[in-house]
Design goal:
Elements (H helix, E strand, L loop, with lengths): L6 H13 L3 H11 L1 H5 L3 H5 L6 E2 L14 H18 L9 H22 L8 H8 L8 H11 L11 H4 L2 H23 L5 H23 L6 E6 L6 E7 L1 H9 L6 E5 L10 E5 L13 E3 L2 H13 L4 E5 L5 E2 L4 E2 L6 H5 L7 H6 L7 E11 L2 E8 L11 E5 H7 E7 L5 H7 L4 E3 L10
Parallel strand pairs: 4-6, 5-14, 9-12
Antiparallel strand pairs: 1-10, 2-3, 4-13, 5-6, 7-10, 7-13, 8-9, 10-11, 11-12
Helix pairs in contact: 6-8, 6-10, 6-11, 10-11
Subcellular location: Cytoplasm
Family: Belongs to the peptidase C1 family.
Protein name: Aminopeptidase
Length: about 450
């Protein structure tokens, strides 16, 4: 039976509004100032002061500008933190995000073609094909995807491939590239379904498409160099250093030196379809065909946070993914559940569990940052220090305070060195992953 709103209902709603305490004052306040300003709780400032018992020194914050590269910035920041300590690099040293951006978009193109070919026999209105065509590629990614890029292409300092207009303002190239990829999908599907082309013909067409994509990206970001010199002055004694004729792979090996297989993704997904101490992957998610695959180990929140604390205690920052917009005050750099009193302002119940928010689309991971500190009281975390990638004009010179309760509710992923895992957790991570659907919230890109 349908339910329609009638005049009597509206009259009753109107009367209830008039009877509600302070309706006229609240209407004036909200219409004048907006929902967020009207509901801001100024006590949250004092509750989330930027002081931490464990506080890593990590230098200047970076700025992703008008692009969705937070996952890339956050990952490269964890590496540069380590490099700054090892080689006494200046606070403003950065690894090239534009270099990774170029290869990520190029590899995502090929990954898209792979999925188009795999789903070519499905109708265009099937959920998988619709999901694939909705956004053939975007700026976002996950930790394992950056590891796949670095394993293949290495890294380089920002001085070897600096930012371009398009790397800092990616909307234009995203629109063109997605147009091109959908156009190419039409051709590939027709070759398979109508022309019944053999594999050799499909591969030749795919190479032609990738050649065009390479040219588009080289015009957009500049063509990456394959050799470069690394020049820098040390922070403490101002000594000049020059290392010549490096490849990106050699640079990573010499200056970063991480075994990327040691760094794994831990998720916190309390939904009924995901058991704890089990690993998961996501169908059709990735960037490098034949490269590292997405793999998550799902853990309860207490174990999740303890691993992050152990890594911080050892002087290592922590890549993490969260739903950054929820109850977050950007200018002041506060991420706390008491930042905005929406429910009190409107006198409504907005409470959902973390699992309900994931299942019903109210929350998902949409941004990656770096945890660089934690405040422990009697061994328990009360708040966390966060390095963002939105420049130094927000928060505390680019750093944010995340309350522990906010972390419980809106943090979904951390990257942890396997050496901090117990033997039992290492055995858990070794399990074969359960394959989740492409649209699962644990497959969203930060």
């Amino acid at each position: 039976m349908s339910f329609s709103i009638n005049k009597e209902d509206i009259a009753n709603f109107h009367q209830d509004y008039r009877n509600h305490p302070n309706s006229s004052v609240l209407e004036n306040t909200v219409t004048k100032n907006g929902v967020r300003n009207a509901s801001f709780n100024w006590h949250s400032i004092a509750d989330n002061s930027p002081h931490f018992s464990i506080d890593l020194k990590t230098g200047d914050v970076s700025d992703q500008k008008q692009s969705g590269r937070c996952w890339m910035f956050a990952a490269l920041n964890t590496m540069r933190h380590d490099m700054q300590q090892k080689f006494n690099l200046p606070d403003n040293f950065e690894l090239s995000q534009a270099y990774q951006f170029f290869w990520d978009k190029f590899e995502k193109s090929n990954y898209f073609y792979q999925n188009v070919i795999k789903t070519a026999k499905k109708p265009t209105d099937s959920r998988k094909v619709s999901w694939l065509m909705n956004e053939p590629q975007n700026d976002g990614g996950q930790w394992d995807m950056l590891c796949a890029l670095i394993s293949k292409y290495g890294v380089m300092p920002k001085s070897a491939m600096p930012e371009s207009f398009n790397s800092s303002n990616s909307r234009g190239i995203d629109g063109v590239l997605n147009n091109k990829l959908r156009h190419d999908a039409v051709i590939l599907r027709k070759m398979i379904n109508e022309d019944h082309a053999n594999q050799e013909a499909i591969d030749d067409q795919r190479r032609k498409m990738l050649n065009e994509n390479y040219r588009i990206l080289a015009y957009t970001f500049g063509e990456p160099v394959d050799h470069f010199d690394f020049e820098y002055r040390t922070k403490k004694d101002n000594k000049f250093h020059r290392d010549t004729n490096l490849t990106p792979q050699k640079f990573f090996e010499k200056y970063v030196g991480w075994n990327l297989d040691d760094y794994i993704s831990i998720i916190q997904a309390p939904t009924a379809d995901k058991k704890y101490h089990q690993t998961y992957t996501i169908d059709m998610l990735g960037n490098v065909v034949g490269g590292r695959e997405i793999k998550h180990l799902n853990l309860p929140m207490d174990e999740f946070k303890q691993l992050a604390i152990e890594q911080l205690k050892n002087g290592e920052s922590v890549w993490f993914g969260s739903d950054v917009i929820k109850y977050s005050e950007t200018k002041l750099g506060i991420m706390a559940l008491n930042t905005y009193d929406y429910d009190k302002l409107f006198d409504v119940d907005l409470e959902m569990t973390k699992a309900e928010a994931l299942d019903y689309g109210e929350s998902m991971m949409d941004h990656a940052m770096v945890i660089t500190g934690v405040d422990l009281v009697d061994g328990k975390p009360t708040k966390w220090k966060v390095e963002n990638s939105w420049g130094n004009k927000v928060g505390h010179k680019g750093y944010f305070v995340m309350s522990d309760a906010w972390m419980d509710k809106y943090c979904y992923q951390v990257v942890i060195n396997k050496k901090y895992l117990s033997d039992d957790l290492k055995r858990d991570y070794a399990k074969s992953p359960v394959v989740l659907k492409p649209w699962d919230p644990m497959g969203t890109l930060a």
